[in-house]
Amino acid sequence: FLKKMYRQDKKFLANIFAKKNFQNILFQGRLIRSFEFVSKFKKTHPFPGNMWQRPVIEIANTLRPWAEKIQVADQRLCQPWCYSSATLEQAQQTYMLYKKAKEWESTIEALPSFNLILKNQWYRESTDYHKLKQINEWIEDSLSKPGMHINILTWAFISEDNIDPERYKKLHEKIVNFKTAWKKCIGVLNQQGKINESLWMGGKTQDIEGLVGKLQCANDTISSLPLLKRWAHTSESVSDKGFSIIADKVMENILKNDQSGKAYEYYLYKTIYGHEISGNKFLAEFSETRYQNIRSRFAELDREILTINAKQIAAKLANVPVPIGIGSGPLSTYTNKRLLVHEANKKTRHIPIRQLIKRSGEALKALKPCFLMSPISVAQYLAPGDIHFDLVVMDEASQLRPEDALGAIARADKSIIVGDPKQLPPTSFFDTSTSDDEEEATVIDDTEAILDVCLKQFPYRRLRWHYRSEHESLIQFSNEKFYDGDLIVFPSPKRDVRDYGVHFNYIDKPSYKKGRNRAEAEVVVENIIHHFHRHAEKSLGVAAINKAQAEEINFLLEKVRQKDPVVDTLISEQEHDEPLFIKNLENVQGDERDVIFISTTYGPEQPGGPVAQRFGPINSDLGWRRLNVIATRAKQRVESPRVYRRLYFLRG
To answer: Which segment of 168-177, 261-270, 281-290 scores lowest on mean pLDDT?
Structure first.
């Protein structure tokens, strides 16, 4: 044996032989049996080869935890049920049932009524469950009676062991009597309108005190019952139409006063809208994305067509032969293209324009077939019979006298007269010197405009679509008062946005005197500065009722621009596109801007004083046409400071 051990581990044996009591240890039977067990275990349960090459102390430390776990498992397995014929699965099921029973015991003992009803009947696993079943059946039977509740049943117990039937009987009688009286009252109230009992019994207050409070409130407000009846019928009618949400919101006090009418109108139109949409296949299949794509594509193609048409016209005109004319001999005999080239090369001593057009008219028409001229320019530069046009288009014809327009009409085969008979008529505003009087020296001609004459003699076509105003309130006044509501106006999607529509600003301290209002002019200048600081991207125009006020505003603004270079820069940057203008109403026709400030000018000379019934040209018989002009210049917004909140006009 020693030889065998020696061959296996020389170092191990050397340690053993070093012990003093070697003889005693070597022959102990315990050590021999241990070696035999280890040797046997090695054969039947092989570990890795290097396991047995390690020191014994390491092997012992490795096996010791496993030995402890096996010992614990052995102790747990040595239970009484382990010696029965039950399988491990049956034992596990028994354990789960036992665990659940313990959980039920805890749940039962935690019930609110446990101490009152079950405490004296509960002995856990020794409880008489048959008796408990009888108690349960009695509770269920009691709760099934009308008006009974678990709280009432609990109240009926006078002690832990006894219940007072008489106490319960009296309570039950009172409850039945109350229920009978309640039904009778509800029946009476239902004659006035349908009563929702759940709101009386429930809601935020579901106890007796809450019901008593509701009844007291109803008694105190019994005079409102007729009004409540009307509301009940209205609510029922509204609900029948599918608008029950409005009635609910009114009852919840969310909708108040005129909000209810607006909500009803909204849901009515919404319902009509939904009905029309669902009944129209085209509208039901409408897609905003697809529509916007079509719209964008249409606009793109429209622009391309305009560009192509312009190129086509240019190409056609470029092929028109230009008469060469005479280019030799005396200069007075030069004509057409030769004369134009000769004059273009000269630096001084050009011939008069009227003579140039007379001698080179055909060449000019070939090079520039479209002349843009005023009636006065036509008479001044185009000699009668020397040059003739296919078509003459006359714009703003409401301001042209017939005698001023006939010269241009006579020089063409056809004429198109364009204008608005409800805007400015012919005036002598620029032909009359300004007096010192505060009234404007504007004279209204008695003669009709060329537009009025043509309307009586020739067929005409009225343009009803109104495109300028981006907010319907900008044209609403003129449309109702001057055009009889005949204009077709696009509804604005920005009805309640401050940057759109008509707005008035009240001035507390008036200072009107002799056609000028200094305080109002200062407010207008402040608004101009604010506009260019906040909305410089939007064009601006100022329209004053008279010339004196326009000059006052312009004077004050120039002073500010001189003192503040930032304001001057902001205004100057916009002059290349749609520059700021400050004009009186005679000059403003034909202009348009994103924003227009209107200076009404007139007002009392002192706070609270009377307003003189003198309004310059507005006072004339055709003053309403001037008012129409000044009120329709804006595309997005009109701002008008004024020194009076309400003005009364005297008619006489």
So the answer is: 168-177
